[in-house]
Each structure stands twice: as C-alpha cells, then as structure tokens.
Amino acid sequence: MTGDTSTLGSRSIILVERWFGEITRKRIRRGTFQSVDELIKAIEEYILINNQNPRPFIWTKTADEIIEKVNRCKGMMETLYYYLDTLILM
C-alpha cells in the first residue's frame, strides 16, 4: 500500500462517516425504539439486509466541487458567527 498514512486515515474516516450517515437516514431516523436493545436489533438487521446486496458508493461530484462547497459553507458559517457575536454584544 502506498500513500501518505494521514491521507489514508482521512479516507477511512470519510467512509465511516458516510456509512453512519446512511444508516442514520435509512434506518435509525425512520424507526421508533422503545429500548437500546431494539435500536441495536434494528442496526444489526439493517447491516444483514444491506450486506446481502452491497453496492459501492459512487461519488457524483469531483473533489474540486466538494472542496468548493465546503469552502462556501465555511464562509457562510463564519458570517453567521460574526453576526451572532454582534447581536450578543449589543
């Protein structure tokens, strides 16, 4: 395996975050759980069903498009924080 280990670690984290986002949207938010055991069972069932027909994640945006959007969002957040700080100081 070649490459910078920090880059490889970042890629792994992104995939893990992506997977948790998907299970959250597709199973956890759609369910009602009376106990932690029910939640665990729902997660395990999702994994079993998902693994029966696995599909690779396909990026629909280029890296440049993703970075541009992240930078736009960061700019909006900085502006929002500036205005919130201004309102709080008033």
Structural commentary:
With 90 residues, this protein is mainly α. The chain has 2 domains: 1-58; 61-90. It contains 3 helices and no strands. The longest helix is centred in the last third of the chain and has 27 residues, at 63-89. The protein is flat and about 55 Å long. The chain starts with a helix and ends with a helix.
What attributes does this structure have?
single chain, 90 residues, mainly alpha, 76% helix, 0% strand, flat
Annotate the secondary structure layout:
Layout: H1 5-28, H2 36-52, H3 63-89
Major sheet summary line = none
> In terms of structural class, how would the helical and strand content be classed?
mainly alpha
What value does the Rg take, in angstroms?
19 Å
List how many beta strands DSSP finds.
0
What's this model, at a glance?
By secondary structure, this protein is mainly alpha-helical.
